Amino acid sequence: MVPDVFRASAAAPATANPLRPRDSSIRVDAPGIGFAIPSNTVRNIANQLIKNGKVTNSDRASLGITAQTAANEQGQDGGVAIVGVQPGGAAAKAGLKPGDIIIAVNGQSTPSLQVLESAVAMLKPGTTVTLTVVRNGSTSDVKATLGTLSS
């Protein structure tokens, strides 16, 4: 017996996709965003969850800061203001403090927290980066060795 969904009807021509939703407001042919998580990443994370009940090593780089996007005088994104520094983290070891504003990583402008997060996400823990930082109106370059993002 063939399920009704696979039968042609007067309302739908026989050439119509039988798996297509009947609600015309649902667009199954619209382009979407797809992503995949590598199986070794899934295995690593799953094993940590089973063993520890939490992720203890994400294999993702981290500066060890809490931050937010800072606005410049024109109200535009002007860098990343450090709100907090994780003790023992990469930023703390590099001498960064709350109130510092990161404006570049390895020469790449970081006008917003999203841009900074993307730049760091492309790097591996243990990588040394040059951060361009504004502190009390003075700009300087600071070297920091990235740590591992913790839970």
Summarize this entry quickly.
By secondary structure, the chain is of the alpha+beta class. Helices cover 18% and strands 28% of the residues. It has a domain at 61-148: Roll (Pdz3 Domain).
CATH superfamily of one domain: PDZ domain
> Mean pLDDT, as a whole number?
82
Write down the CATH class of one domain: Mainly Beta
Class from secondary-structure proportions: alpha+beta
Indicate the CATH architecture of one domain. Answer: Roll
Rg value = 24 Å
CA-CA gap between termini: 52 Å
The major pleated sheet works out as: 6 strands, antiparallel
Strand-and-helix sequence, N→C?
A: HEEEHEEHEEE
- In DSSP terms (H or I, runs of 4 or more residues), the helix count works out at 3
Shape: globular
Q: Spans with pLDDT under 50 lasting ≥5 residues?
A: 1-10
- Give the oligomeric state of the chains in this entry, treating copies of one chain as homo and distinct chains as hetero: single chain
Q: Count every beta strand, where a strand is a DSSP E run of 2 or more residues.
A: 8
Helix content percent band: 10-25%
- Could you name the CATH topology of one domain? Pdz3 Domain
Proportion of residues in extended strands: 25-35%
